[in-house]
Amino acid sequence: MPAKNAAAEPGLLLDEQLCFALYSASLAMTKAYQPLLAELGLTYPQYVVMIVLWERDGLTVSEIGKRLFLDSGTLTPLLKRLEGGGLIARLRDVQDERQVRIRLTASGRELRSRAATVRECVFKATRCTRSEVNALAQQLATLRMRLLS
What's the CATH code of the domain at 142? Predict the structure, then answer.
């Protein structure tokens, strides 16, 4: 009796996997960002940390981690590299020395203006309308929250 082709099984086709659609789209998105961020001297994970700090400087490591859905084991090496690059400073909180606050340096603040074009370049690369991008972002945020709850 010949072996059944696994691809013929319902639910086992690669193109039917939501996880693969998300994974491969994420890879493509990161690839679109890569040359733009290379000009800034940032990796994609470093870029999103910087975005969080440009939104609100002086956050604790745990606050940044919550915002980015990253644990401290992943976040700490990113922060050390950003500090080594002179973009941030890690400082003990004066009211609670167990907490480390992350502050932008002058170079980190200046990088914001250079990074301002990145989003628009990536938006153009998607060839989507603003409403399509906004709707997709909202759907993905809803999916993430459903998966995390």
Answer: 1.10.10.10
